[in-house]
Structures are given as C-alpha cells and as structure tokens.
Amino acid sequence: MSSTERLQRYLADERDGCGDEEVSQRLAELEEIDTAAGGPSLDADVGLLSALANETRYKIVRILHVAGEELCVCEFAPLLNVSDSAISHALSQLTDAGLVTRRKEGKWRKYRATARANAVLIALDGSREL
Amino acid sequence: MSSTERLQRYLADERDGCGDEEVSQRLAELEEIDTAAGGPSLDADVGLLSALANETRYKIVRILHVAGEELCVCEFAPLLNVSDSAISHALSQLTDAGLVTRRKEGKWRKYRATARANAVLIALDGSREL
DNA sequence: CATTCAGTTGAGCAATTATTCAATCATATT
DNA sequence: AATATGATTGAATAATTGCTCAACTGAATG
C-alpha cells in the first residue's frame, strides 16, 4: 500500500474534497513541517537527551545544577553508588553532549554544569505541573 | 578504601584545615545537595527524557510542536520511515511520559504535543547557542 | 626515578531498547 | 452479520546501553 493512500482516505473523511490535488497539497505541508522539525541539530539534541536519560548521569547534572559551583569527581563518589569508572564514563558522555565542562586542577578534575544543562533542568522544573 | 578518604585528602588539599570535622561538614553539605537534587520526580524526569531520547520519538514530538495542532497517526507515517507498529509503540511511550495526548475521532486517532513537551523543546531551542 | 593517587579508557557481559511481524481490537461500511 | 480499515498489542530478535574489572595515563611526592 502506498504510504499516501491512507492519508487520502483521511483527508476525504475530514474535509470535503478528496481530490489528488488536496492530498498532495497536504503532503507538501507535512513535508515542510518535517523539514522545519528535523534540522541539523536533531542528532545533537537526541545526543543531549540520551546523555540525560539515565539515572546516574541525570543525578550528576542535577547535583551540579543544585550545587551551583564546580565539583570534584571525588565529591560525586559518596553520592552515587556506582564505581569510579562508571562515574568517569558518565562524565565523559555528559561532556561530549555539552552538558558539563571539565577543568584540571593539580591531580583533581572539576566539573561544572553548562548553561544549556541548567536551561533544560529549569524547563523540566518549570513545566512539571503544567 | 572508604569513600570519604579521598574526599578528606581533597579537602586537605583545597582548604587549610584537614580535620575530620570539616570533612563531615562537607559531606553533610553534599548529602543535602543530593537530597535537593533527587526528589520524587527524578524517575518521572528520567522517563520523560528517555522517551525523547530516540530519533523516531523525538521527531514525532518535534513535528507535533512545529505543526501546532493535532495530527492523525496516518499523517506521521509518510514522514517517518519505520513501520506503523513502531509509530504506535512510539506514541504510546510518549503518551505515558506525558509528552503527547491522544484523542479518538471515528476510526482515526489524533495526537497533540503537551505543554510540557513544548516547554522542553523551547528550552532546547533557546539554549542551543548559549 | 619509583611510588602513590586521581581519574580515564577499553574490553566484556548482562540488561535494556528499538524495531518488525503477526495477531488482535475497534470502528465504520456494505 | 460480514468485511475492510486504522491502530494497537505482544512476542521475538537484533542492536544498543550501563556497568564493572583490569590496565593504563598523568600529576604529585618521597
């Protein structure tokens, strides 16, 4: 079945006309919507969301957001019951996604939430009881 | 190794005092941050983010956001190259996560983005070039 | 310069996820 | 009632993910 036959029946149902013309017009509208929806930032956005979609990583970002300052890796460890290695993997993925930044200070590494991370968390908080 | 020994060395490095007292005070601060970070909405938030962290589902929500109106399942199909079944699974997960709402109209089902979905997408857009 | 410590990296494995196929439900039509 | 259509559901499977362990890097310190 062509992908548009069902759409054709739908439009015939909803609207009065059922001509091919109206179908292809609606299809063009949908393509336009799709193009506007799927820009080049789609992959990066899904990457960012994937980075946040895990309890360990989400907690790290939340902790940094609440702390409002940079924290040392050694300060996360007591709060997350996973291995140091898991924490390091999590921090790398968050860094790649643009959610945290890293800074060296002697033998310690300090991480901070980015403006983007804060913006997303604030949106989540603000929309919770909409 | 106790989880706090490294923290103790860190604090001794950063600050002047290195007493047990200062360590346990910082630990208490961190626990407080952790509590503030990890409220009951943590699971729901991770669920919401997981629902968005997939190209098919993200595109559906984006399309609904851009469209600004409810769309029929049959209108997604031409834009997403996955099976109808996959689209239906995606829509169910998005509904469970509170990102879209469903409405029956005859034999057609129409979906709409929720206010929360729109808020998150707007935050992503607005924070892109921070 | 050998050792220690903080953190990272990669391999491996268990658990989860994304998709499809087939069957089913629900609504409309004949 | 029987059939057709839109959509959903569940099972099966391939792909991805999250974690740990062990080995490693880089920086400080004896």
UniProtKB/TrEMBL annotation, chains A, B:
SUPFAM superfamilies: Winged helix' DNA-binding domain. The keyword Signal does not apply. GO terms for molecular function: DNA binding; DNA-binding transcription factor activity. InterPro entries: ArsR-like_HTH, HTH_ArsR_DNA-bd_dom, HTH_MetalResp_TranReg, WH-like_DNA-bd_sf, WH_DNA-bd_sf. CDD domains: HTH_ARSR. It comes from Natronococcus jeotgali DSM 18795. It comes from the Archaea. This is MarR family transcriptional regulator. Residues 37-130 form the HTH arsR-type domain. Keywords: DNA-binding, Transcription, Transcription regulation. It holds the Pfam family HTH_5. The lineage of its organism: Archaea, Methanobacteriati, Methanobacteriota, Stenosarchaea group, Halobacteria.
